[in-house]
C-alpha cells in the first residue's frame, strides 16, 4: 500500500535501529512538546527550556553524534533523523539541540582541552548545563572575519570585550563558546556565563523562532584564566568547522518542517469541500501536492546520502552547503504551498503551517545565507572565490 508521505519508499533504506531512534524522538515530541508548542510560539517564549533540556539529555539527544564524556556516540544518520523529527515539531526545538550539540559541545569536544571537556561535556550531554555559541555580531554575520570582539592578554589572564547578536540559548546558558580577535588571529574561549562582565539579554519582538531563546551577549571586561582559551585552533577554521556540523543538522531538520506542512495540507485537502467535492479532487491542488511530494522525496534522499557519506568518508564544506541550500529552499517552498492549500486557515496557529513557514524564514539565513552557500558551491565548481 502506498504511503503518501513516502512515495519512493525511502524508509526501506533505514535500518531497524535507525527507525527506533526516529520513533523515540517522535514519541518525546508528541508527548512533551507538540501539545504546547503553538502556545509557546504565540506567547514568544520557551518556558520549560531547562526541563526540556534535561528530558532530551536523558534520551541521549544532546551531542548524540559525539564520542565519550557522556555523549551517545551515535551515527550522523541517527542525528539527522532526530533533527528531522524535532523540527517537524518546531524549528526552535531543533535549534536548542543543534546549538547545544553541534556548536557548543562540538567546539569543546574538537578544540577544547581535556579539562574543558571533562568539566562541561558530561553535564551538557545530560542537559544539566546549557551552552551557546557566540560568533555572530551586530555588524558581522556573513563576514565573521570582521568581528570586533577582542581578547587581550593581561598578565596570564585573558580579558574579553565585545558584543554577540542572535545567539540561541544565550540568556539561559551556563557556558558560552565565544570567538574573539586576538593578536594571533581569531581564537575561541570557554566562558562560564556567571563570570563578572558577562551579560545576556533576551531578544523580543521576533516573528520567527518564537519558541526559542534568542539573545544578545555583552562582554565587558570579562576576565578569564589562560586555560579558558582553546589551545591550538587559530583563525576562522575553528568556528567554521562547528558551523558545518550545525548546517548538517539543518539540512535534515528543514525536511521535518516540510513534512509537517505537507501532511497537514494533504489531510486538509481531503476534508475541505468546495464546489461540492474535496479540493484534493481538483487538478491544480493535486499538482501542488505532487510537486511537494517530489521535493520532499528529493530532499530526503539527498540528506540520507550526505548522512551516509558523513558516517563513512566524511563531508566536504561544499557538500554541506549543497544540502543546506537545497533542502531549506525546497522546504520553505513546500510550507508556502501548503499555506495556499489551507487558504485563510493557513495563517492560523490552529494548524502548524504558518509557524513552520515563519520559522524557516530564519532557518533560510542562519548558519549561512543562501547567497553564501551558493558561493561556496560556485567556488567548488569553478575554483574561483567570489565572496568579495
Task: Give the arrangement of secondary structure elements.
Elements: H1 16-32, H2 37-43, H3 49-58, H4 76-89, H5 91-111, H6 114-125, E1 131-134, E2 150-154, E3 157-168, E4 175-182, E5 185-192, E6 198-202, E7 214-224, H7 237-271, E8 273-274, E9 277-278, H8 283-312, H9 317-342, H10 353-365, H11 370-382
Parallel strand pairs: 1-4
Antiparallel strand pairs: 2-3, 3-7, 4-5, 6-7, 8-9
Helix pairs in contact: 1-4, 4-5, 4-7, 5-6, 5-7, 7-8, 7-9, 7-10, 8-9, 9-10, 9-11
Name its key features.
Butyryl-Coa Dehydrogenase, subunit A, domain 1; 9 strands; alpha+beta; 3 domains; 15% strand; Butyryl-CoA Dehydrogenase, subunit A, domain 3; globular; 11 helices; four-stranded antiparallel beta sheet; 388 residues; Butyryl-CoA Dehydrogenase, subunit A, domain 2; three-stranded mixed beta sheet
Give an account of the 3D structure.
There is one protein chain. The protein is of the alpha+beta class and 388 residues long. The protein folds into 3 domains: 10-125, Orthogonal Bundle (Butyryl-Coa Dehydrogenase, subunit A, domain 1); 131-228, Beta Barrel (Butyryl-CoA Dehydrogenase, subunit A, domain 2); 237-382, Up-down Bundle (Butyryl-CoA Dehydrogenase, subunit A, domain 3). The chain is built from 11 helices and 9 strands. It has helices spanning 16-32, 37-43, 49-58, 76-89, 91-111, 114-125, 237-271, 283-312, 317-342, 353-365, 370-382; strands at 131-134, 150-154, 157-168, 175-182, 185-192, 198-202, 214-224, 273-274, 277-278. The strands form 3 sheets. A 4-stranded antiparallel β-sheet has the order 2-3-7-6, covered by helices on one side. A 3-stranded mixed β-sheet has the order 1-4-5, with helices on one face. Strand 4 and strand 5 (185-192) form a beta hairpin. It is globular and about 80 Å long. It starts with 15 loop residues before the first helix and ends in a 6-residue tail after the last helix. One of its GO terms (biological process) is fatty-acyl-CoA biosynthetic process. Its cofactor is FAD. Keywords: FAD, Flavoprotein, Oxidoreductase, Transit peptide. GO terms for molecular function: fatty-acyl-CoA binding; flavin adenine dinucleotide binding; glutaryl-CoA dehydrogenase activity.
Amino acid at each position: 500500500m502506498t504511503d503518501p508521505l513516502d512515495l519512493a519508499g525511502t524508509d526501506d533504506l533505514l535500518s531497524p535501529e535507525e527507525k527506533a531512534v526516529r520513533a523515540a524522538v517522535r514519541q518525546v515530541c508528541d508527548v512533551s512538546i507538540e501539545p504546547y508548542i503553538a502556545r509557546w510560539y504565540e506567547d514568544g517564549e520557551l518556558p520549560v527550556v531547562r526541563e526540556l533540556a534535561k528530558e532530551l539529555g536523558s534520551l541521549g539527544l544532546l551531542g548524540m553524534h559525539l564520542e565519550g564524556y557522556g555523549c551517545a556516540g551515535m551515527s550522523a544518520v541517527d542525528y539527522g533523523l532526530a533533527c528531522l523529527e524535532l523540527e517537524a515539531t518546531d524549528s526552535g526545538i531543533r535549534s536548542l539541540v543543534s546549538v547545544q550539540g553541534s556548536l557548543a559541545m562540538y567546539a569543546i569536544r574538537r578544540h577544547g582541552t581535556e579539562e574543558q571537556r571533562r568539566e562541561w561535556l558530561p553535564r551538557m550531554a545530560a542537559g544539566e548545563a546549557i551552552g551557546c555559541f557566540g560568533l555572530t555580531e551586530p555588524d558581522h554575520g556573513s563576514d565573521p572575519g570582521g568581528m570586533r570582539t577582542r581578547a587581550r592578554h593581561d598578565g596570564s589572564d585573558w580579558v574579553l570585550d565585545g558584543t554577540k547578536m542572535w545567539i540561541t540559548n544565550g540568556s539561559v546558558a551556563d557556558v558560552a563558546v565565544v570567538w574573539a580577535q586576538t593578536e594571533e588571529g581569531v581564537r575561541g574561549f570557554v566562558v562560564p556565563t556567571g563570570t563578572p562582565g558577562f551579560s545576556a539579554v533576551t531578544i523580543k519582538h521576533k516573528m520567527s523562532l518564537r519558541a526559542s531563546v534568542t539573545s544578545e551577549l555583552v562582554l565587558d571586561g570579562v576576565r578569564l584564566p589562560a586555560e579558558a582559551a582553546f589551545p591550538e585552533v587559530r583563525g576562522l577554521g575553528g568556528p567554521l568547522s562547528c558551523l558545518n556540523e550545525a548546517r548538517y543538522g539543518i539540512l535534515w531538520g528543514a525536511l521535518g518542517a516540510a513534512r509537517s506542512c505537507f501532511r497537514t495540507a494533504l489531510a486538509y485537502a481531503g476534508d475541505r469541500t468546495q464546489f461540492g467535492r474535496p479540493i484534493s479532487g481538483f487538478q491544480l491542488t493535486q499538482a501542488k501536492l505532487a510537486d511537494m511530494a517530489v521535493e520532499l522525496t528529493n530532499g530526503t534522499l539527498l540528506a540520507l546520502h550526505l548522512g551516509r557519506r558523513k558516517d563513512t568518508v566524511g563531508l566536504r564544506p561544499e557538500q554541506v552547503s549543497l544540502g543546506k541550500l537545497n533542502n531549506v529552499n525546497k522546504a520553505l517552498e513546500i510550507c508556502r504551498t501548503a499555506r495556499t492549500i489551507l487558504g485563510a486557515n493557513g495563517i492560523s496557529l490552529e494548524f502548524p503551517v504558518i509557524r513552520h513557514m515563519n520559522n524557516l524564514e530564519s532557518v533560510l539565513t542562519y548558519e549561512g545565507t543562501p547567497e553564501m552557500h551558493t558561493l561556496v558551491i560556485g567556488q567548488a565548481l569553478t575554483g574561483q572565490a567570489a565572496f568579495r
